[in-house]
Amino acid sequence: MKYMLLIQASTDTEPQCTFEEWTVYDKEVRDAGIWSAGESLADLVTATTVKVDRDGKRTVTDGPYAETREVLGGFYVIDVPDLDTALDWATRCPGARDGSVVIRPVADFSV
Prior knowledge:
The protein is α+β, with helices and mostly antiparallel strands. The protein has helices spanning 19-31, 83-92, 95-98; strands at residues 2-10, 35-40, 48-52, 58-62, 70-79, 100-105.
């Protein structure tokens, strides 16, 4: 089963993990053979938000401007047997110390 680990980074504290810790975690995920996809996202200042109203009018603004102190910093898609295993990998993720990791099953519409 595939799960997406959405890495929510805190915007109001100094990072509690190092680049080296991310490198180690990334290698562990790949070496375990569970990696399906994953990327780190560019800095928050590069974000653009698009909203479309009911009339189809598009509004574009710089930044996410969400009502939260966490922003999506990156993601992994892992292929593991069950949610418990996904929870174990999310717990090991350095991003869980700086913010949080949201785990979502990937929908399978092939059935």
